[in-house]
Amino acid sequence: MAYRVLLAQFMHETNTFSKLPTTLDDYRRRFLVEGEAIIPKFKGTKNEMGGYIDSAATYGWEPVYAVAANATPSGTLTKATWETIRDIILDTAKKAGKLDGICLSLHGAMVTETEDDAEGALLEALRTIVGPDVPIAATLDLHANATVRMAANANALVSYRTYPHIDGYERSVQAAALVQEAMAGRKKPRCLLLQPAMLEGADHGRTTQPGLMRELLAKADGYEKEEGINVVSIQVGFTWSDIPYTGPSVAVSHEPGKEARAKAIAQAMIDEIWKRRDESSSDYRPIADGIAAARAGAGKKGPLVIADGTDNPGGGGYNDTTPVLQALLDAGIENVAFGTIFDPKTVQQAMKAGVGAEIDVELGGLTDESMGRPVKAKAVVKMLSDGTFRNDGPMNAGVETQMGPTAVLRIGGIDVVTISSRVQTIDLQVFLSQGIDPTTKSVLVVKSVQHFRAAYGPIAREIVLVDSGGICSPDISRLKFKKLRRPIWPLDGVNDPYAGGQRA
């Protein structure tokens, strides 16, 4: 008889310092798909749900689809949003009858109005429904603020091993394989987690160059070859979240009798992260450096990519800050494509005027004028669209992205992709779908800190990461933590990584 396995995705990376609450409409703008409708939405994609769909076919499971829900990172989920999506999953589990396994796609850094550890609460509720013997595996983002509560209620936490995150599919296939082994009685996995007194660590998980994170992952690969060690996951944490659990952690899924070895592995990894806590490959530079690079590269082959990392909507940035755009205009830089500015009102103004019209705009600066006032300029409407495309780059290939109604506005020598739904620029289709060939531009501006590198790195002549003063600034002294466990490095004088934090 086929194993019956519940499949679900419920993701959000919550920036608790954002002014913008996360609502059901925010999920609908990205995706909120229930039941069997998940299959046509994700079959054949490189999303985690695509991996679970393929795994169900590989193992001959009878899949029970609950929901696939994901929203662009922003502020705390409203109580209604959290409970509505949570209850779809829980009600599906209750009504399913006998379940043999559960495979989830979570983020690990979701915060709601009522839950600082939303994923832990979800896993605990599912465990209460299905009992102690049904295997549950969950994929997590590499930037999860993972908790002991999550580990205690899951048989495995399987985190991304790439940043940019291009291995969601592979991680879900890995999680599904372990659930299959557990359902067949060949394995009896249990999970433990260790978290030190650290707010940041492991170079924020960067894997695009040699360094600490790659070395840690290589060690994890070696540990996973040991008998009785199923999965070794490194979560580097999501800093912009004021909860007790923020920061790096290590989770180890192990077999009975291997708990001591699993704890030793987790501690060895944490010790290495602590020992090398000052290592960082981040290179945020002032906007002026980006302008200088644009001037110096005029006429050279390939685009300069200026990454506005502190207004990264993938980390909860407002996607409407204007200092980089204003600096490019003031400097008279030509042949630029800017992706993107969130400004639904200006999009509607452009749609009313029509393609070819010249309009007076006050663009961006909608949410917090301390992060840039609106850009006042004359703009020519170059293109109008519904803003929908499918990713064809390395990250989330095949998954549909919806920027909402979209206008390309020509301001001076800059084509600004102006959108109605916040979207991180991770795919070339942000430009290509709007009639812009990014390879022909002298300068590309992307609202992203790291994920853009998967698609844009291969075409860039140079990359400059700038700090424009947005909400995702790497300067943690700007963040006013109230709930964070203390003492914690680097905010306090901490000499022992185990002075605080979580233990399995």
Element layout with pairings:
Blueprint: E1 4-11, H1 24-30, E2 31-34, H2 38-42, H3 48-59, E3 62-70, H4 79-95, E4 101-106, H5 118-130, E5 136-140, H6 148-153, E6 156-159, H7 168-183, E7 190-195, H8 212-224, E8 229-235, E9 249-254, H9 259-275, H10 287-296, E10 304-308, H11 323-331, E11 336-342, H12 344-353, E12 358-363, E13 375-385, E14 388-390, E15 400-402, E16 406-411, E17 414-419, H13 429-432, E18 443-446, H14 453-456, E19 462-466, E20 502-503
Parallel strand pairs: 1-3, 1-4, 4-5, 5-6, 10-18, 10-19, 11-17, 11-18
Antiparallel strand pairs: 2-3, 7-9, 7-20, 8-9, 12-13, 13-16, 14-15, 16-17
Helix pairs in contact: 3-7, 4-5, 8-9
Write up this protein:
There is one protein chain. The protein folds into two domains: about 5-275, no CATH class; about 285-475, no CATH class. Strand 5 (about 135-140), helix 6 (about 150-155) and strand 6 (about 155-160) form a beta-alpha-beta unit. The chain is about 30% helix and about 20% strand. The chain is globular, with a radius of gyration of 23 Å. It has helices at about 25-30, 40, 50-60, 80-95, 120-130, 150-155, 170-185, 210-225, 260-275, 285-295, 325-330, 345-355, 430, 455, and strands at about 5-10, 30-35, 60-70, 100-105, 135-140, 155-160, 190-195, 230-235, 250-255, 305-310, 335-340, 360-365, 375-385, 390, 400, 405-410, 415-420, 445, 460-465, 500-504. The protein has an eight-stranded mixed beta sheet with strand order 12-13-16-17-11-18-10-19. It has a six-stranded mixed beta sheet with strand order 2-3-1-4-5-6, with helices on both faces. The chain is an alpha/beta fold and about 500 residues long.
